[in-house]
Specification:
2 domains; 56% helix; elongated
């Protein structure tokens, strides 16, 4: 019985937090849609001082930015050589770029 009560309370807290977040992110006017507010949001409003949005962090690097920098240096080296490299040299450079981007993931 106690576990069921704890699970229900956790569900209600999580739903309150989600619904509160949705309300904050919802656009006004006709873009906001016509979604009705959750029926328990008013009743659970006493949780407001205890519910805080946390800033999220990630350990995932941003390979797109790094790949862009690598691609720019690759294109600059091709441009500096006058673009007169052979097709084989271009393939080697592209292969190196792909390997570097895979290693960063």
């Amino acid at each position: 019985m106690g576990e069921a009560c704890q699970a229900k309370w956790k569900y209600l807290r999580d739903m309150y937090r989600r619904q509160r977040k949705e309300q904050k992110e919802r656009k006004g006017g006709s873009e906001g849609g016509t979604k009705r507010p959750w029926k328990y949001i008013g009743i659970l409003s006493f949780l407001e001082p205890h519910v805080q949005d946390r800033e999220t962090t990630s350990n995932y690097s941003k390979p797109q930015e790094e790949m862009t920098e690598t691609a720019e240096s690759l294109f600059n080296s091709i441009y500096e050589s006058g673009g007169e490299g052979t097709a084989g040299e271009s393939e080697v450079m592209i292969s190196r770029l792909n390997q570097e981007s895979l290693c960063q993931m």
